[in-house]
Amino acid sequence: MIPRYTLPEMAGLFSDRSRYATWVRVEILASEAQAALGRVPHEAVEDMRRARVPDPERVAEIERERDHEVLSFLAAYCEDIPDSSARWVHLGMTSYDLVDTALGHTLARATDLLTGAARRLRRVLTERALEHWDTAMVGRTHGVHAEPTTFGHKLAGHAFAVDRSLRRLAAAREAVAVGTVSGSVGTYALIDPRVEEHVCAALGLGVEPAPSQVVARDRHAQLLQAVATLGACVEQIALELRLLQRTEVREVEERRTGAYQGSSAMPHKRNPTTSERLCGLARLLRGYADTALENVALWHERDLAHQSVERVILPDSLCVGHFQVTKAADLVASLTVDADRMRAHIDQTDGLVYSSSVLAELLGDGMERERAYRSVQAAANHTLATGEHFGASLAKQGIDLAGLGPERFLAHHDVIRTRLEKLHELED
Prior knowledge:
- One of its GO terms (biological process) is 'de novo' AMP biosynthetic process.
- It catalyses: N(6)-(1,2-dicarboxyethyl)-AMP = fumarate + AMP; (2S)-2-[5-amino-1-(5-phospho-beta-D-ribosyl)imidazole-4-carboxamido]succinate = 5-amino-1-(5-phospho-beta-D-ribosyl)imidazole-4-carboxamide + fumarate.
- The protein folds into three domains: 1-91, Fumarase C, Chain B, domain 1; 94-191 and 212-255 and 267-347, Fumarase C, Chain A, domain 2 (Up-down Bundle), CATH 1.20.200.10; 348-425, Ribonucleotide Reductase Protein R1, domain 1 (Orthogonal Bundle), CATH 1.10.40.
- Helices cover 62% and strands 5% of the residues.
- It has helices at 8-13, 16-36, 42-50, 56-66, 69-78, 83-86, 95-131, 151-176, 193-202, 218-244, 273-294, 305-334, 339-346, 355-364, 369-386, 390-395, 414-425, and strands at 136-141, 144-150, 178-179, 206-207, 252-253, 336-337.
- A two-stranded antiparallel sheet has the order 1-2. It has a two-stranded parallel ribbon with strand order 3-4. Strands 5-6 form a two-stranded antiparallel ribbon.
- The chain is elongated.
């Protein structure tokens, strides 16, 4: 995990100390179930509960001798448990009964944090979309002026994209929030399935229906795909805001602090650095998602090729995704919107943005389509070549531009606002 792109609440979930605390909890829950089945003394379970969570430094020290993290953890944990009780720790279990069940619990909690951040982003987007529902601006396709729209409409599209990502995250959380306590190669040969049921129920997890010793890695791939898709939605927001902050556009601007410095050489620079950072992080998330797919195929009942990879991609993906979404919400919430400049840009192309409305009127008056299109296009080309206003160019073709304005394009706009208001109600 990179501290620069990791927020404290997410970092805490993936720390070694937190991981070992969850491992201890799994071991105690498994022993509780074993005791209820008469296989482990209740006194031993009490001794396990009294034992401290091993220090990561102590586990690392033992691992230098044993070269096996789970065995080193168990050795460190049992140092604080009487020998008569320590022998019952981990009874009938294999390493990944502990590792994967704890991992499912951690990933579910991490996904909950990410979901909370994404819900805030959805709320901020809907609120600002409603705030700017009537803030007219030019819509652009291919980077070229097209027709009038509103800034609220633009933000509404992003809000619905984040909402779809929230549904993907919910499905991915369900997929990844599973555990298995089934023993070597997953056959329950040395452990009763009721132990697994008790452990997973207490942790709020489902059970892997046909364990192979490990939890299936398509689950983790699904989660990282959902995180990457959410990251791409944030990237789309950030890319739009970057484009709108260009010098020749300057319709919005990121919040600046008194300490802001945009360039080491050019004091005038006001760069869209937050938006750029969010776009860059989306690239990382896509890389993590691709790597997670590589982890799905394991040899036979399991191998260890996925482990080293997951130590990087799982915490990093959740941490980066959480950071990116949180900062995106901050960006949108504090964004300065220049409504006057937006409105002025509608007229920047001398009325050309109204060409489709003129065409529609001619067709409505009965003119043949090809003739109508060519007439309007000829007037538009004349405006582009000479700088003469589109209305004057049309007048030479006998066409009147009078009465056209942004409002003509927004007559049915409120149907979208109604949908947005329903989305906003989800936050109440």
